Amino acid sequence: EILLLVLDGERVHLPGAVSSRLAVRIGRDVPDAAELAAPAPPVLVGVDEVDRTILDRRASETAYATVAATAELLAALGVQPARELAKGGLTLPDSKRLAEVCGIDLEALPRLFHRADEAGLVLRDGAYWLESDVGAAWTQCNAADRWQRLAEQWLSRIPPMLRELVARRSETLSSTDLRDDVRWLYPAGGRWLDDGLDRLVDDAEALGLAVAGEPVESGRLVLAGEVERAAAILSAHFPAEVSRVYLQHDLTVVAPGPLEPALDARLRGFAEVEARDLASTYRVSAASVNRGLAAGESAETILEFLLEISLTGIPQPVAYLVEEASKRFGSVRVASADDAEFPARTVVRSDDEQLVRTLAVDQALSAIGLRQVGPHRLLSRFAPDVVFWALSDARYPAAAEDREGAILRLRRHHLAQSPPAPPATDPLGALLDRVLVVADDDATEVAWLARQLEAAARAKETLTVTVRMPGGTTADYLLAPASVANGRLRARDRKADIERTLPLSAIAAVVPAPSNV
């Protein structure tokens, strides 16, 4: 009130600087006097003709789908980070890859990714997005706890005043009602406020807090701060997690429901996810087993794990594949090159001369530029881990080793470390500090003036511009702004029909031109 209003007894006055700034916005993003005088939207008692159990089940289905898609997003980023464009957003190839893995439309990926970002599940490291250590811990939780984390993050983004607003309509508030109430209470919010509400409502739908714009029980509980209770209600309709699978002779592993997180993570270490739904399918292949062996598994540990979780034992084709892959593992070795072989950084060797010749001419490996330098050796200018994963992706039984020939265990899972939490600060004190700094900064006033003139130039509007003259007097000019650059305004004088150029520092005020101009 001290900054924007002047109180004179029972009367309230707007300072001239405030009124002039608001005047140019009336009718565009600020309502006029009649709209401001309108009463608040009524709180109606709704007649609920909808079967709430159907809405609650739909909310649970949507919430589970969001949690599952987020988990797949993190798994995909752990294997291969996604690149951020300089102009913002992910590259198209990465977007398509992630959307396919998550089982969602390409258009839905940005919001899914943004929710994961706001929850701290993903982090940007340079030009790439990776799964965070927080995200890795999140994937080890059950579906209810995963959902609770996302819901708590959603709730934390709602300002306290808006939560109070929602509370007055907790039984009947739809997304349309919410927008009406917010626009009435915050008439100057404009497009910025509308966009923020749209994001909140979209995320509420994705988390099962509302269905088709209508509130459900879980949404009311979350807004009341009872997130844990809401998670219990929603998760009651989630598919039950399973701990056993069916191993098939065609080398597939079928889970009759969502596999427990720890088992799912272990199985993904040496099997590819082929289909992800209420029933998931994994496939064991020579390449996937080789990946598991490189990460530290052995034929014995893989078969022992499969036997523990299998309802059908271990089919002979599965056992044979694992054992044969284990025997062939390491027939191609990857290590750092000696300094004498610079600029080569990696040496690839094998006792099989024919295999070495095949590696040298394989077009699938052209990107790493393998160059044969002997019957058993090849060189590459790329780093050993890059060469190793290129060979592994091309389905060669590669193993990484140190310079003494000992096998190194490599994992492809990339994680970004979350930054430490910032120290707690007093938000009111920080705001006052900023106000004091801005109050003494003449550049702030000039910057605001420049934005108003630029907006008028874009809208082709005419303004009354008050200019400070020598001797302390002022003069009003009827100007149509053309451009603002280098601290100067270039505008057309409507009365004199000439072009004027004025320094912004000489402009005392701007107001809309009279309506008859």
Automatic annotation (TrEMBL):
Domain named Helicase XPB/Ssl2 N-terminal: residues: 246-372
Pfam families named among the record's database cross-references: Helicase_C_3 (PF13625)
InterPro entries: XPB/Ssl2_N (IPR032830)
Protein name from the UniProt record: Helicase XPB/Ssl2 N-terminal domain-containing protein
Record organism: Agromyces terreus
